[in-house]
TrEMBL record:
It is found in: Cell inner membrane; Cell membrane. It holds the Pfam family MFS_1. GO terms for biological process: xenobiotic detoxification by transmembrane export across the plasma membrane. This is Bcr/CflA family efflux transporter. Keywords: Cell inner membrane, Cell membrane, Membrane, Transmembrane, Transmembrane helix, Transport. Its main location: membrane. The keyword Membrane applies. The lineage of its organism: Bacteria, Pseudomonadati, Pseudomonadota, Gammaproteobacteria, Pseudomonadales. PANTHER family: CHLORAMPHENICOL EFFLUX PUMP RV0191, PURINE EFFLUX PUMP PBUE. InterPro entries: Efflux_drug-R_Bcr/CmlA, MFS, MFS_dom, MFS_Efflux_Transporters, MFS_trans_sf, Sugar_transporter_CS. Gene3D superfamilies: Multidrug resistance protein D (1.20.1720.10). It comes from Tamilnaduibacter salinus.
Amino acid sequence: MPHLQLAILLGMTVALGPLALDAYLPAFPDIAAALGVTQADVGLSLSAYVSTLGLAQLVGGPLSDRYGRRGVLMAGLTVFALSALMVSQAGTLAELLGWRIVQGIGGAFCAVSVPAIVRDQSHGQDAARLFGLIGLVMFVAPAVAPSLGTLLLTIGDWSLIFLFLTGYAVLLAITLNLLLFRRLPKHEPIRTPVATLVTNYWQVLRHPLTMRFIGIQALSFSVMMVFITHASFIYQEWFGLTKTGFSALFASNVAAMATLNLLNRALLKRFESVDILRTLVVIQCLAIFGVMIAASLGAPWYVFAGFVIASVGCMGAIIPNNMANALEYFPHLGGTASALLGGTQFTIAGAISAISASIGAHTLTPIVGMMMVGSVGATVLAVGAPRAVRRGREQPARTEGAI
């Protein structure tokens, strides 16, 4: 299958995450009023979904290795669709939270299947280019999700948003069955004892290069997560910008990521993906230093925002290159490696983001300090990465460049 068609289909699958997270944000006041709770209580449904999304990948990944990509992905879409339907009928906060947790399980099974499918079909530079294309397609979802939610609220009440998610998941399942799985080479599951669903993680955990790249992804992603957590406070309260100004600056981050993503595709024709990754992680760290200096000196908002956009934009090239390198050594355990990557990414980034929320709720410097912690950690790991990543086998054999 041509890369563009594969990227569009897999990008549509990954888009489930941003749609489930962002589309219902404009409906928080309506949901709170309907359930008789505060908006902060409704916000717990966001945390419940994200937490489950990370943890459930640790289960879905090994299952996809043992039972096949198609079965796990279709199961995930089924659970996602049914739970979204039940969320739309929720009459209490407990029902809302409970079904959002179930929805997170379905979303996790979908999310973990995409990198595994990419690893089944490609490796090395080819995989990095494919991940880049998927990322480019996926950038559309977080950009349009809040506007889509607002549009649906003008047609009906908040439940319509989750009915839309139900319909999207059903349509996606039909599309993937007709256009993706019929054309892909069949992935042969590994028929090993059920106990290997757990022990396979040990193979990934003791592979030094893979764990290095997992660490880079988690720490770099935490930089963006800390910013997203505090973006409204930073721009609207600290710098006093309007909602329109805040939205424009937030959209600029997405545009920067898309630009770096396109540039990365061109660079992959001339340079090794691991070298591009190392360079972008260092650039992100330098941009965060700029953010810290701007915050310390009380620089105008546009100086601060410029450095933030540069740092977040780097993720457009960091993520595809890092994912390709992290999964390179596990052609038959791509689901397990992908699950550990996703689970670690959400857990560490979520923890750093939560710490930043507890120590920097009313001032700027601690927030920027937590962004710096993640960026410096990622830089240390990236600088020590090998000059090139060679295709390996799923065993902890000595690898050139390993620590």
